[in-house]
Specification:
Elements (H helix, E strand, L loop, with lengths): L1 H12 L3 E6 L2 H13 L3 E6 L5 H15 L4 E4 L15 H28 L3 E6 L12 H21 L4 E8 L8 H6 L1 H9 L9 H12 L10 E4 L8 H14 L8
Parallel strand pairs: 1-2, 3-4, 4-5, 5-6
Helix pairs in contact: 1-2, 1-8, 3-4, 4-5
């Protein structure tokens, strides 16, 4: 679903043979069916990327199906996003690290040897604007997304000589299937969010999928080790000016609803 689902469909549209690896079997199957209905090639596999066996099995399955591996998109995140160091349990912290960060280390461990056999490939790691700027009470999420950028740079330096490019994407607020019902119920809240963006809209999963497809393509053959910000310009703004503008917006729109 969300960014992962859109990315699978977008890469399949470009001709990639896509293995959709997910803990949600039904969502993965629906996505694969959509890919096939559009004339693409896709398979699904139940995978928990928070485990070594899950990631290793994902790579092995792709090789078993198609004999090679050219692209890996690391998109999964699991764990409690909210909570500071006092509030967050060690269990939730560990799960966030396993799925959001260690899975990317494991993906490189198992994918790189396969990519070396065919002369290169592309690894895409999903970070966030939360990897560049922080919000109070999001300790695990901010830590993971910040670390993803450092991991991406290191992997790019290590495997560039093998023709393997590694880049990260930093999305802004993306209206996915999971969050859309909230905004449908509170359209004034969505309008408030949209006002924070220079483009005056939030992102869609396909906005991120398009950026990922570009970084995986030959048109990006000289781009590696980068954290591409895809956020409608949200992070380029001076905070004090944004605060003044948002204050005026709330005064003019008393129906504004705040999600946090």
């Amino acid at each position: 679903m969300g960014i992962g689902g859109a990315t699978a469909r977008r890469l399949a549209q470009d001709g990639a043979r896509v293995l959709v690896a997910d803990v949600d079997d039904q969502a993965a199957a629906r996505n694969v069916q959509t890919i096939r209905d559009a004339g693409g090639t896709g398979e699904s596999q139940h995978v928990d990327v928070g485990t070594a066996d899950g990631v290793r099995g994902m790579v092995e399955r792709a090789i078993e199906l198609w004999g090679r591996l050219d692209i890996v998109v690391n998109n999964a995140y699991s764990g409690t996003m909210h909570g500071d160091a006092v509030e967050l349990s060690e269990e939730h912290w560990d799960r966030a690290m396993d799925v959001g960060l260690k899975a990317m280390f494991r993906a490189a461990k198992y994918a790189v040897p396969q990519m070396r056999k065919t002369g290169g490939g592309s690894l895409i790691n999903l970070s966030s604007v939360h990897g560049l700027l922080v919000a109070p009470g999001w300790l695990a999420y901010e830590t993971v997304k910040t670390a993803v950028i450092g991991l991406t740079r290191q992997l790019a330096a290590d495997y560039g000589p093998d023709g393997i490019r590694v880049n990260a994407i930093c999305p802004g607020h993306i209206v996915t299937e999971r969050i859309k019902p909230q905004w449908d119920a509170h359209p004034a809240g969505l309008r408030f969010f949209e006002e924070q963006y220079p483009l005056r809209r939030c992102g869609t999963p396909m906005d991120i999928a398009n950026a990922i497809a570009f970084l995986c393509s030959s048109e990006a053959s000289f781009i590696t080790g980068q954290a591409l910000v895809v956020d409608g310009g949200m992070t380029l703004q001076l905070q004090e000016n944004l605060g003044v503008r948002q204050g005026r917006y709330v005064q003019e729109h008393p129906e504004t609803w705040f999600p946090y």
